[in-house]
Amino acid sequence: MNKIKLQIISLFLISILLFSGLSLGSSDKQKFVSLQENNDFYFVQITDTHVMHKIFERNEISKNRFMYVLSKICSFDNKPAFIVITGDLTEWAGNYISGAFNCLAFTSCLYKKDGQFYADENYSIPVYTTPGNHEYYLSRNLKNYHRFIKNEDRYIINYNNVSLFFINSGPSYYKLFYNFFKNVDGDGLYDSDIQWLESSLDNCSSSYKIVLMHHPAINIRNKNGEMHDVIVRNRETFIDLCEDYNVELVLTGHTHTSRVFDSSEYYYNFNNSLNCSLYSTLFVQTDDCKEGVHYRNVSLIGNDIWLENSVELEFLNRYNN
């Protein structure tokens, strides 16, 4: 028994040593990924870029932040399979011409081929998006987002043995008046969204399932036990659905904070990487590219999904006038 315990402890310590360097920009990460099987890969999540056109932001700092994080990701020796951006791509979009300019500023940072956006000029790193509440501003619809960025609110991307389900968590929820000033809850998922997601998960043959949307479904509670900055409509139904269909991850943004919860609202505070395959559905918030420049890496290695912590890049706006 003591020998078995010793073997288990040894394996655990080896795992810690192997994965403690899983930061996307580190040489240890690049070396480690290159030693894995051909089906292993990683992708990058960024969120809340809040890009504005130079008409509204003379120094274009939001655009430069976005271009900087894209250039950094594209410079890695081992390229990501793709990039996902989980909402608030622009500071506002809506259906007015000002929002159209913001959408054009966002897309000008990308390369486009056959209707698909890419992060690099070689068209090797696709970029997939989902709208955030800011895409509804200033008119509470997605006309400019649909015209210039993505004409679908719900879609599925399959890569190797992983399926990613992109879904729209809606505009800001202002039914409660104080939300307008204090909290920015999301309107949430309509019954048709839930039906689409359930049907898609039910018909999914991939081993791994990841859902992506802008607003989180789980967040910290305040001293009054209230939870804010989450989806309002069908929140609990969505959480149960993810658990029932063994969704590994729900990747979101919105809060401009890095947090990870499970369905029981347990908060996971980890420093390096988390093996998601050891847990039930994890509900992830990733830090923004507005108040700072952040990205998060998700790696699929062997039979495990590894969630890395948000990484902050040092950014100097070299394009200031």
Instruction: Name the structural class.
Output: alpha/beta
CATH class (first level) name? Alpha Beta
Quickly count the domains.
1
Rounded to an integer in angstroms, the radius of gyration calculated over CA atoms is 20 Å
- What is the CATH topology? Purple Acid Phosphatase, chain A, domain 2
Structural account:
It is built from 7 helices and 17 strands. It has 321 residues and is α/β, with parallel strands linked by helices. The strands form 4 sheets. Strands 1, 2, 5, 13, 15, 16 and 17 form a 7-stranded mixed sheet that branches. It has a 6-stranded mixed sheet with strand order 6-7-9-11-14-12, covered by helices on one side. Strand 1, helix 3 and strand 2 form a beta-alpha-beta unit.
Write the topology of this structure.
Blueprint: H1 2-19, H2 27-34, E1 41-46, H3 61-74, E2 83-86, H4 97-107, E3 111-113, E4 116-118, E5 127-130, H5 143-148, E6 155-159, E7 162-166, E8 186-188, H6 191-202, E9 208-212, E10 231-233, H7 235-244, E11 249-252, E12 259-262, E13 273-275, E14 282-285, E15 294-301, E16 304-308, E17 311-312
Parallel strand pairs: 1-2, 2-5, 7-9, 8-10, 9-11, 11-14
Antiparallel strand pairs: 1-15, 3-4, 6-7, 12-14, 13-16, 15-16, 15-17
Summarize the structure.
The protein is an alpha/beta fold. The protein contains seven helices and 17 strands. The protein starts with a helix and ends in a 9-residue tail after the last strand.
